[in-house]
Amino acid sequence: MSDLRQQALDYHEFPVAGKTAVCLTKPAETSMDLALAYSPGVAEPVREIAANPDDAYRYTAKGNTVAVISNGTAILGLGNLGPLASKPVMEGKALLFKHFANIDATDIEVKHRTAEEFINTVEAIADTFGGINLEDIKAPECFEIEKALIERCNVPVFHDDQHGTAIVTAAGMINALEIQGKEIDKAIFVCMGAGAAAIACMTMLVKCGVQRENVYMLDRKGVIHTRREDINEYKALFANNTDKRTLQEVIKGADAFLGLSGPDVLAAEDVALMADKPVIFACSNPDPEIRPEIAHDVRKDLIMGTGRSDYPNQVNNVLCFPFIFRGALDVRASRINDEMKIAAVNAIAALAREEVPASVLAAYPNVSELSFGPDYVIPKPMDPRLLSNVAKAVAQAAIDSGVAAIETLPDNYML
Ligand SMILES: NC(=O)C1=CN([C@@H]2O[C@H](COP(=O)(O)OP(=O)(O)OC[C@H]3O[C@@H](n4cnc5c(N)ncnc54)[C@H](OP(=O)(O)O)[C@@H]3O)[C@@H](O)[C@H]2O)C=CC1
Ligand SMILES: CC(=O)C(=O)O
Ligand SMILES: [Mg+2]
User: Fold this and answer.
1) What is the ipTM of this complex?
2) Are 377 and 303 a contacting pair, CB within 8 Å?
3) 316 is in an annotated binding site
4) Could you tell me the domains of the chain?
5) Whose CA is nearest to atom 29 of ligand 1?
6) Residue 93 designated active-site
């Protein structure tokens, strides 16, 4: 562990500090290059954009950029450590945007007092970018912030911890339940956590067929039930009319456990109480709600996923955000709507059922085989087909649902 700690610190420090830099897409070698790039030539696109703001997509990088914006109030599962401490994660998201979807992402960490101040700050800079990816903003403020920004901004605004996580979780859960022989509308769910990711994941799973009365959601005070008076309006959506109050009471006979809370909150004894052939997605980062080796020790019939790269079944929003933004940017979608989100769920779930190319296996030297089954319910982040399949499905859904400014798929989607 300490070895990984030092390796991670060295990775971030050397050979240059941080993980991203700006690169140029036009020559800047000669005086003529400078006359075009800067004064006097730059005045020409300025005039065009002033006359027609849409020309920003033609003459600037706007259309291929995303701002990754955080206030550091829910950094992974590490908590509220402030905006500056969130910078490595936001740079990390920018790295993933670039590597997986060739999107130029800029990390922005915002210090603010009120939610309104944060909203105003983001609204004021939103037109600079092709899209806004909100990241690691805690509940319940994240809901109010995202809603206001969707209303006020002209570009897609997407809170990744809500919707990216929900899309990937739903895709993996649909596949895992099927492998376990469970019907989604009959499965009993325990969701540990009642914040940004948990509320969005369970909302998406309800759209996919889970029955609301079959969901037991817990926060730090235990089961969220209809007689609790200390819950906000978002938790209230999942208040269960039940006499059960503790994790041990609700986990007994549960088919699926979804962890979006914090480390080590699920014990081996709890796992032993679950129904036959259970599914556990312990998605808290970096440390899951239970370690896979502990869970597998008590249940041989288990399908297990985590948010991490170093175990099978990585249930992590990296499988979604680069590709949903690629699709949205390519057809210049004004928003990321439910149709686009459902298209992403289906594309990710379907990809896990396809044969895995050798190039993907080669990226995982410790894995000898990958085929649809308990250890492979969801595609690997390194799978290049995520880009083509998910972005295309999302772009098509944007066109079909009437939110795309460009109504034909780009040529490269037709290959
Ligand atoms: N794998 C993935 O792709 C993703 C994983 N996550 C993980 O999900 C977790 C939550 O993130 P997010 O929703 O953004 O954060 P929020 O701050 O919005 O929500 C955190 C929630 O977890 C609950 N919680 C925290 N600790 C415990 C505990 N010990 N027992 C019970 N409940 C607890 C909180 O309870 P209360 O309401 O009582 O404070 C709150 O409801 C993080 O660990 C994060 O890493 C998030 C996004 C993506
Ligand atoms: C993966 C991620 O976004 C998180 O853990 O917050
Ligand atoms: Mg996050």
Assistant:
1) 0.99
2) yes
3) yes
4) 2-155 (3.40.50.10380), 162-415 (3.40.50.720)
5) 262
6) yes
